[in-house]
Write a structure and sequence with these properties.
The complex is a heterodimer. By secondary structure, chain A is of the alpha+beta class. Chain A contains 10 helices and 21 strands. Chain A has a 6-stranded antiparallel beta sheet with strand order 3-2-1-4-5-6. A 6-stranded mixed beta sheet of chain A has the order 10-9-8-13-20-19. In chain A, strands 7-14-15-17-21 form a 5-stranded mixed beta barrel. In chain A, strand 19 and strand 20 form a beta hairpin. At the A-B interface, strand 1, strand 2, strand 3, helix 2 and strand 4 of A face strand 2, strand 3, strand 4, helix 2 and helix 3 of B.
Chain lengths: 468, 464
Amino acid sequence: MSALQPVDSTAARVADQLRADGPWEVFAQRTRRYELHLNGTTIELARGPITVEGYGLRLLRPRGEQTGRGFQASTDLTADGIRATVATAEAVARLSSFPAKGVELPKPGGAPASPLIRDDDLWSDPMGTLERFVHALTAPFDGRSNEVLSFGSVRASLNENSLANSNGLRFAYPSTEVEYEAAVKASGGPEGPPPGEYWVNGSSRRATTDHLADEVSAWCRYAQDVRRAVQPPTGDLPVILPPGVLTTILPNVLSVRFTGTARLREIAPALGTSIAASSLTVEDDGTYPWATGSGPVDDEGTPRRKQPLISGGSVAGLLYDSLHGAAFGVPSTGSAARAAGFGMRDPRRFAHAPGLSSTTLSIPAGTGGSDAELVEAAGDGIWVQQLGWAFPDPFSGAFGGEIRIGYRIRGGKLAEPVRGGTVGGVVMAPPGAPSLLANVVAIGSTPELTDQMATPPLLVRPLVVAGA
Amino acid sequence: MADLRDYEPNLDRILTRLERRSAFAEILAERASGEGVQVERRSTTPNVQPRMHGAIVRAWAGARWVEAASTDLEMPALESVADAIERDLDGSATAGSAPGESATTDEEWRTDPPHPVSELGMEGMVSIGKDVFGWATAVPGIKECQVSMGWADDERLYLNTAGARCFQTLSRVRYGVAPVAMENGRVEFDFLSGGGLGGREILEEMTESSVRELARGTLDLLHAKAPPTGQMPVLLDPSVAGLFAHESFGHGTEADQFVRDRSYLKPILGQMVGPTQLTIADDGAFPGGWGTIFCDDEGHPGQKTLLVDHGRFVGALHDRESAAVLGAKATGNTRRSDCLSRAFVRMTNTYVEPGSWSLDELLAEAKNGILLERGTSGIEDPLGGQMQLKVKKGHRIENGRVGELVTSMALSGRVLDFLRDIRGVGREGDTKMETGYCGKGHSDLLPVGTGGAHLLSTAVVGPA
């Protein structure tokens, strides 16, 4: 993998033309994007290259106990454009206030090794790689008469990321990102129930097709099971949440509440507070291989690392960038992130000022064993395969949504599929109160990377299920 | 950064070049500008929209569309875009015409508010934000409140080889107020938000009395109980009814899903699906709506399309391609979230039209159930016909009266069952559109309005 190299990057080019006092930083991207969109198994739209080159300039202006922050992004790389960007950022900084002084931006240092974040095949032949991905996605449907791909898309971004700051930091690194989305429609049977659908999406740093055929088989099975699923019962039940569901719940709450931003708002949990089951450990790992949140450095230039958040059920740490670190007199944890707020990720990260966010939340393997052993431990409950949209509230910690497809657990075995109704609760609560984190009773033994989490399935006893 | 129209000659040259190679080509160029501010207890954060523009080129390649785009509007960059398009056109049949009707509209539109928010400057918005923060935190027990507001001008220039030339400037204004209450480790917030096409009058909706009432309501949430669980009568407030319209008949009637045979509604077009008092519409021309557009990104004017008319499912939303396949007309619903994103059939402002029931009559009819308030999110299920709606809070309905406050919850149900069980549509409702952002699948967020009147039906609810 590429190590950091000082190169003739977009950020360096802007920095060389800057006429501004420090502290300042430039984060830039040169991005090529390619996409294939499917109608069934036919390509209905090919897109690319979609070429974007832009930068975001942040100025920090000390004012007594406060710091003014001025940010402006632009795609105008001309000298006049850069001058206008500086003028706007200065004007914004004059009106801004943040309770920190002596904010130190990262200094040049040894180039940290880059984690695995660039797919070399994709980098050198983006459209060819996407076409091979689409072939691998559609081929398993050949010969299937009762399951079809009703739509799909795969989108690849090839990013040249670069940073420069007034401390003399200059470097760049490449990264790739792939997002895919597909819907499998199942039908069949002479007088059978109406068609069913399993709708899936995911993201990674690479366009790997290694397990795609197996995944398609599973999607087809879920789509068929949707057709015969019944509503779940109502009650407080043991619930198993697999990685694909956990990644829609935990990051939305922990990446807000376990940060310096939350501490500033006085809604962060205190270090040492018992907040989860004693068997639970959660760390933020900015170096996890092939994870979309990984990188050699954060979006300010501080090396990414592993940061414990929960250890043995107690709060072990919070996430900081340079700004929030200065507010509390602690070092940055390499957690500055752009375009990491609510909603879908904007590939134009340069257009956003850095904020604070988790990268990949990692829960190590537990002692709960295989999926079958977790199901056996649940006894009588629900395996939630997919939620409609958990949409967690990071303030109250409340989460929940409709069960798109799940399975009833009876007598320690997976039984009939369930669909409809809701499952929900709160992610975290004051010590002693029930919550998802506190009610974890078993942790599976095989972590899996899905989007923003690398985790095994968790058995939670109980969560509230509303249904028939 | 030069005006978008200064680049029009460059765009014309690219279109002329592509006209020789493709039966149809089009360009959408965009420039955005705007300012905003967020005020909290410990920080004040003004922000300015990126100085950014760009253009996307789409051409018909005989059997499929091809697209390329750039954020550089100078000729060398645009020529590179055209090169990429032409490479994809190689070997394509140029004789076949693009599906559907090409727009030929030649018009210019501009939101022209009498008092644009830009006149305030960032200083003015900071001042308003601090006033609003002060109103909220004057309520004992409220120490924190997030106040945000801003304006954004979205300029779009659409050109095609059929002669269309549409230029529009959409001036959107939005605000949000979210007091935060804390007690013994429990954290709650409530919110007030609004927006639309317009100017300073939109920010004036944040009044001292409405903000103080909101702050007091936030404190009440600290002591609210969990909602009941299971199937029961549900009364949706106008914001939730708007979400219902969006998730059920909005996404379900985006006709690209009809073309993919991926809509549970396709087989029942023309049938009665609900009571005669139920009418649902999508209206891209709704005055001042958050999702209002003058024309869509294929050059078709924004318009009102009835989806459900007095209980009968009568219409769908079309782009040129779905209209061609299904023998319909384009409805002005083709939208790109920005000049780099693909075009899809999308909603604009989707709402339930008012009925005849008073709120007291609806509560009496419900007798015992749950009132769902402050819609926060929803998600559709285009093929399965399920829906999920989430709300920030609600009240139990007990013996026909509003009872105790309950915390956030989710509603789940099958849309056609929900429609069948509608027992009343309120006569009091939104006179403007609520503000929201909608994705197509898991990407391409864009502004949409929702609105409605109270709806009484039956569904499953649970804490969420």
